[in-house]
Amino acid sequence: MSRRFLVTAALPYSNGRLHVGHIAGAYLPADTYVRYLRLRGDEVRFICGSDDNGVAALKSAREEGKPVEELTAFYNASQRRAFDGLGVRFDIYGGTHQPDYVSLHEKLSQEFFLKIHEKGFFTKRASKQLYDVQAGQFLPDRFVTGVCHYADCGKPQAYGDQCEACGRSIDPLLLKEPQSILTGTTPEPRETVHWYLRLDQLAPRLEKWLRAKQSPTDGSPAWRSTVLNFALGQIGVGLPERAMTRDMTWGVPLPLEDPDAAGKVLYVWFDAPIGYVSFTAALCERLGEGWKAYERWWKDPACRIVHFIGEDNTVFHALTWPAMLLATHEGETPEGRPGEYQLPWQVVANAFVNIKIAGKAEEEKISKSRGTAIWIEDYLKDHDPDPLRYYLTAIAPEAQRTAWDSEAFVERNNAELIATLGNFINRWQKIVSEDFGRKVPPLVNAAEENRALLAELAALPAAVGDDLEAFRFKTALGRVMDGFRAANRYIDVRAPWKSRKSDLAQCGATINVCIQAAKTLGILMTPFLPFAAEKLRASLNVPEAEWTWAAAAVPLPAGHVLGPQPEVLFRKIE
Q1: If DSSP codes are grouped into helix, strand and coil, which group holds residue 460?
Q2: DSSP state of 574
Q3: Could you tell me where the DSSP H helices lie in 41-126?
Q4: What's the CATH architecture for 404-546?
């Protein structure tokens, strides 16, 4: 039965290039999942775009000496190229301050704020904020760094909104040894006015909703324990009020007729997740449905909303964003009624990918400043996308942090993609061309080896599908590769290069099973290795409409005419 999904991947800041850690954390698993859903025949919209507002862009624009509009446009385009080169195919890639999107984004963000304001979940109050005397301005969160104030962390270089070491939210006034990035001076607290989201009032409903994700009663997969443990732990400690406005001009203007609202914008982590909504609306407009058609995806309980994020975004996607959605509801239950914003069906968070440097025992954090990064645009200059997709899925940081290892990447490409997957596809090509005219030979007098492999293949789509449904991408890919290993063992035993000389019917039966294996495994590898899978589909001469999950174990009939021998699926990497 066809289902409906709205899938999002975290909005990357438009202030830098993408590296392998970004891709492994959110974008590759999201693309893999969407490709699987589409092979199943589900209705899907895949949404992403750059996060242009806030201090990250201002900070980078200042460092690079460019207008912030120019900088965000440059990196938005750079990110588009990187995603496209890797085959991460969004239905729309917007930008919260890009010319084609900013108007609709501001409209929906301001409406969102006003709805929550009308329902009484904002508190306006004066508070202290760090002020740079030398620069003559209040400092946005990311313009302040210091030592994390949590006793069990205490790491340096924490930002004024979040400690990247422990992942927790930060009150900039509690930072130890604060420093302004504008002048390097120590800022001083001064009074200003902001609007605070009452997370404490929303916490009981948040907790009820999150606990239901531990053992869902609707048959949906439980959330990853890393996400739930973190979110429920934060609720247990107590959720603070969170300021949702900032003293700056780059962002969504605060939509209040209040003298204190002048010169203020919405906090970037208030408007950024609304980008998922505004980009959906922009896509609906682009498709001729009218922008308000976004409600079919965001306000219909039948649509499953899935967010893919990195671990550092967990606090916002599992707590702040759901709290914002809850704050728009009329009722007191976590579930939104039809016509109200629906909460995420799943929040899929991956840990960080570190990097292993040759000659060093300890893994390091991927860092632009230290030059320890594999940049996607640089990688694509010399290498194909599928090997990177394969390796990043094979080391997917689904439960804990993992590390990029260049030697291991080369080894997996050469020993697994070439020697296992590519080798199996190549081993029978000459025989089917020379002895059977590139037609599927009949399966006669099926031997035990034939029946055993065909039975294993018949069970594989359900097993791989179960893993993908539960967001176990690494395990699912492992099953597909185990299928190729089984196919190689099969052809070793059947040795069609020998039987072609002594028993052509037996040889034909073996080639038939190899072709069926190639079709089944080719469809199952499509979400992971879409470029190689497309070459294989063309070689098997299967129409795109028949390259589906349901058809994966449906055999190609005897006499089916194959396409030309496939192009090289994978190239050796030295």
Answers
A1: helix
A2: -
A3: 55-64, 68-86, 102-118
A4: Orthogonal Bundle (1.10)
For residues 354 and 404, the answer to whether their CB atoms sit within 8 Å is yes
Q: What is the pLDDT of residues 264-287, one digit of tens each?
A: 999 999 999 999 999 999 999 999
What single DSSP character describes residue 8? E
Question: Can you give the residue ranges of every domain in the chain?
Answer: 4-121+198-353, 123-192, 404-546
The pair of three-digit structure tokens given for residue 23, joined into one six-digit string: 């891709």
CATH of domain 123-192: 2.170.220.10
Q: Taking the model in full, what pTM does it have?
A: 0.93
Distance separating alpha carbons of residues 53 and 59, to the nearest angstrom: 11
* Predicted pLDDT of residue 382: 95
**What is the pLDDT at residue 182?**
84
Other beta carbons less than 10 A from residue 68's beta carbon:
20
**Cβ–Cβ < 8 Å for 199, 320:** yes
Q: For residue 504, how many other CB atoms are within 10 A of its CB?
A: 14
CATH superfamily name and code, 4-121+198-353: HUPs (3.40.50.620)
Q: Is the pLDDT of residue 369 over 70?
A: no
Question: How many angstroms separate the CA atoms of 277 and 266, rounded?
Answer: 16
Average pLDDT over residues 242-257: 94
pLDDT > 80? residue 446? no
Of 380, 384, 391, the residue nearest 353 (C-alpha): 391
The rounded distance, in Å, linking the Cα atoms of 97 and 251 is 8
Decide if 356 contacts 405 (C-beta within 8 A).
yes
3-state percent helix, strand, coil for the chain, nearest multiple of 5:
50, 15, 35
